[in-house]
Structure formats: structure tokens, C-alpha cells
Write a structure and sequence with these properties.
heterodimer, A: 133 residues, 5 helices, 0% strand, elongated, B: 216 residues, mainly alpha, Four Helix Bundle (Hemerythrin (Met), subunit A), 7 helices
């Protein structure tokens, strides 16, 4: 079947799956990518621990600040360690991630929301026990 | 006679944003490592969904201490900081192992995987000590709903790390015994995705359970 064009090589620039980008890039570029990821992750982790143990941030806002830092760090991990991109070969991975985040969000926030309302609307346990015959 | 030829007859080249890129269907079926990575990524996302159930359970039960200790009384930030550092460094060194595998360097692959595994062991040892301390003090998973949620969530992550360490050892042995064959490299691709994903879960755990738990 020599009349057909050669299939493209497995590794094309801007066209790699998570964790496999390094094969296309040079060693120095690969190490630099992981070092940048490590640096940013350490920075965000230190910021989280620092905020939790100090009064730099207004008290009631601390949980939101920690959550924001955590989401940021997850993004750093996805980009620099898992090599998630929006390149053609990676579109399916990014779409699946979007769906996964949707499901996780529904489960977590839905559960907390529903249980908080149940808690609010139900009779306190000690009163409920007194009603037993 | 390869199956790539068939699609080259049917599909025009260059329908993707990069001519010849396979992600948009041009240039034939995706190479196996793309398909393997995608399939394992789906597994990891389903694992995230399972963890999100445990996170939801923990968030709902965090206040149900039944007269027992609450988050503020049982967590030691120092240990958690060391655990976090160990797991992050383990993930980083696993990334370096990916580079060594791409260069088919047996020595650096083994060294990087060994270092990565040792950091994982440090993490597990600290977590095991924390769990043992709690149980010995009578604050085991049966003490309150809060502690049940805590042990389930953090223990499930610890179980994943334990499985990951077994897998890491298996990968070292397979690279040593079988070399850098394509199927072994695909297995390692899956392992590195798994190992990095565990670190993402841990970010959520130390943020929600340990940091927010001690602030609220």
C-alpha cells in the first residue's frame, strides 16, 4: 500500500496527551515545566497554610480564600503535572474533565445544600425523642 | 495493510486545527497511547466522583461530633505540612521519571521512581501514625459521625496511595525486566496520571479537612 501517504508521527507539537508532552519537548524544557509547577504549587500551599494560621485575611473570608487557593493549585497540577491542554488530541480529556467537575460539583454542593435545609426544617432531636410514646 | 490506510481513504487531511493532527479525526485513528491515556483519565474522573461523595459526607457530618473531639482538637498542622510536602515532592519526582522514561534511561528511571516511592512512604508513615494515635486515644472511626467521615475520606486517599506504591514497585520491576516496550510505557503513563491525580485529591483534603476544619 505504498501509494497512501505516510501516517503522521505519533508525537506532534501541540498535540499531546496528558503526561506525554515531555516526549516531544527537550529534556531541559521538560524539567523546567515540572520545576515551574512545583514552585507554583509550593507557593499556593504555603499561602494556604499561612492564611489559616494568621490574621492576614478577614476571619470569615478565610475558608473562601483557602478554597480559591486550592482550586488554583488543582489547576497548576492539571497543567504542569498532568499536561492537560486543549490541543486536538487532548480535547476529549478536557471535555471529560469538564463533565467530571460538573458531577463532583452537583454531588458536593447539592448534598451540603439539601442537608443544611433538612437540618433547618426538622425538629431538634431532643424534642423528637420526647414525642415518642 | 494497516488500518491507518482505510481512514486515509475516507477522511480528508487537515480538518483539525493542525494539519495532520489526529484529535479531530484527520490523519487516521488516534495512536494507542492517546486512547489509553483517555481511558485511564475517565477512570480517574470517576474516582474523583467517588471522592466527591466522601467530601460531601464529611462536609455534612463535620459538626456532628457527639460530644467527642472536633477538628480543631485532633489535627496537628505540623504533620499535615510535612505530609503535604512529601506527597508534592513525590509527584514532582514522578514527573521527572516521566522524562527519564521518554529518554529510555534505565538508571534515572529507577532512581526517580525509587525517590518518588520513598516520599510516598514518608507520607503513608505519617498518616498511619496519625490514625494510630487517634484510635489509641479512643477517637477512632466509631467515636462520632465526624470521625467516621474523617477516617473514610482520608483513609480512602491513604488506601489509594498504598495501591499506588504497589503499582510504582511493579513499574520499577517491569522497566527493569522488560525494558521500555510500548505497552509498559503506556502502563507507566497511566501510573503517572494516577499518582498526580492523588496529589490533586490531597490538595482538596488538606484544604477542606485540615485547614478550613481548624479555622471554622
Amino acid at each position: 500500500m505504498s501509494e497512501h501517504p505516510e501516517p503522521p508521527p505519533d508525537t506532534l507539537p501541540d498535540d499531546s496527551a496528558p503526561g506525554d508532552e515531555a516526549a516531544a519537548a527537550g529534556l531541559a524544557r521538560g524539567v523546567r515545566g515540572y520545576l515551574i509547577g512545583l514552585f507554583l504549587a509550593v507557593l499556593l500551599t504555603a499561602a494556604s497554610f499561612g492564611i489559616a494560621g494568621s490574621h492576614v485575611v478577614y476571619g470569615p473570608a478565610i475558608p473562601i480564600a483557602i478554597a480559591a487557593l486550592a482550586v488554583g493549585q488543582m489547576g497548576i497540577h492539571l497543567v504542569f503535572f498532568l499536561h492537560l491542554t486543549t490541543a486536538p488530541d487532548n480535547t476529549n480529556n478536557a471535555m471529560a474533565l469538564g463533565f467530571g467537575v460538573l458531577i463532583c460539583g452537583i454531588i458536593i454542593f447539592g448534598s451540603v445544600w439539601i442537608m443544611a435545609h433538612l437540618n433547618h426544617n426538622l425538629m431538634p432531636m431532643n424534642q423528637l425523642l420526647q414525642m415518642q410514646p | 495493510m494497516t488500518f491507518v490506510d482505510l481512514s486515509a481513504d475516507v477522511l480528508p487531511l487537515g480538518t483539525g486545527s493542525h494539519a495532520g493532527a489526529r484529535g479531530h479525526g484527520a490523519g487516521g485513528p488516534a495512536p494507542k497511547r492517546i486512547v489509553v491515556g483517555y481511558g485511564f483519565w475517565i477512570f480517574i474522573l470517576s474516582d474523583f466522583v467517588i471522592f466527591s461523595c466522601f467530601f460531601a459526607a464529611y462536609a455534612v457530618l463535620a459538626g456532628a461530633t457527639a460530644g467527642g473531639p472536633d477538628a480543631r482538637q485532633i489535627f496537628q498542622p505540623g504533620d499535615v505540612a510535612i505530609e503535604t510536602a512529601a506527597l508534592l515532592l513525590s509527584s514532582f519526582v514522578c514527573g521527572l521519571a516521566t522524562l527519564a522514561v521518554a529518554r529510555e534511561s534505565q538508571l534515572w528511571t529507577q532512581v526517580a521512581l525509587l525517590v518518588s516511592g520513598l516520599f510516598g512512604l514518608i507520607f503513608l508513615a505519617l498518616e498511619g501514625r496519625e490514625f494510630a494515635d487517634l484510635v489509641l486515644r479512643g477517637d477512632g472511626p466509631t467515636r462520632s459521625a465526624f470521625l467516621t467521615g474523617f477516617f473514610t475520606l482520608v483513609g480512602c486517599h491513604g488506601l489509594h496511595v498504598s495501591m499506588g506504591l504497589l503499582w510504582l514497585g511493579t513499574m520499577m520491576a517491569q522497566f527493569y525486566a522488560k525494558g521500555f516496550r510500548p505497552n509498559i510505557r503506556h502502563r507507566f503513563l497511566c501510573f503517572s496520571l494516577f499518582w498526580h491525580a492523588l496529589d490533586i485529591i490531597w490538595v482538596a483534603i488538606f484544604s477542606l479537612v485540615y485547614l478550613v476544619g481548624t479555622v471554622l
